[in-house]
Design goal:
single chain, 211 residues, alpha+beta, Alpha-D-Glucose-1,6-Bisphosphate, Chain A, domain 4, ten-stranded mixed beta sheet, two-stranded antiparallel sheet, 12 strands
């Protein structure tokens, strides 16, 4: 188990990595799925090979009818997340460095009839300003004992950019970058199916919670 890192340089490196992902040109992405409910588009998802591991970096994007601060308060570690995120089953703040920076441990439910067993993650989380909005981002750490009955997954640099729409400031554009290494012996088809349902549910569950 590694010791806890120095939070300031890790936060800076994490933010810079996410800003780099955010600047990747459209031509490098391949359409993965379009999520819609009752013919209203919830989110569009693209992907490209990750430079961090052998899986994919996913990019998800959709418009949320709410202000930036309230949306990010529901996404980042805090009292709201467990109430609406259908995948997350527990969440504990293990260490707090400052108001916008912490280490959290959380668990996720089994997926695909438990082909993908419940997972546990320990993530460093950082929330900061970005342009006229916010960026909340994270990366997994090798920290803390693994709980029984869980596989320890690993999130390579991930994050959510949330900025108000210029012509509709009461609406926000939410863009996420996700590259989760689930670990364990899993076929790629199961991982793809799990990622598509996870990202679709994320947007639809979040929209319901904000109403």
């Amino acid at each position: 188990m590694d010791p806890l890192p120095n939070s300031a340089p890790l936060a800076t490196k994490l933010r810079n990595t996410l800003v780099q992902y955010h600047s990747i040109g459209d031509s490098e992405w391949r359409l993965f799925m379009i999520s819609s409910i009752l013919f209203q588009k919830d989110a569009t998802v693209w992907r490209k090979p990750s430079e961090e591991f052998s899986g994919y970096l996913y990019k998800a994007q959709g418009v949320i009818e709410d202000v930036t601060n309230r949306i990010v308060d529901h996404i980042r570690p805090g009292p709201y997340r467990l109430d609406w995120d259908s995948l997350m089953t527990t969440m504990d703040i293990m260490e707090t460095f400052e108001e916008n920076c912490c280490v959290m441990r959380y668990t996720t439910a089994g997926q695909l009839w438990n082909i993908i067993a419940p997972r546990e993650f320990v993530d460093f989380s950082y929330t900061t300003s970005y342009e006229d909005g916010l960026l909340t981002c994270g990366i997994s750490l090798d920290y803390g004992e693994v709980r029984p009955n869980f596989v320890r997954g690993f999130n390579h640099p991930c994050g959510w950019f949330c900025v108000p729409l210029k012509d509709y400031p009461s609406h926000s554009l939410l863009t996420g970058y996700i590259q989760t290494e689930l670990r364990g012996m899993l076929p790629q088809s199961a991982v793809d199916t799990a990622m598509s349902s996870t990202l679709a549910n994320f947007y639809s569950d979040l929209k319901k919670a904000l109403k």
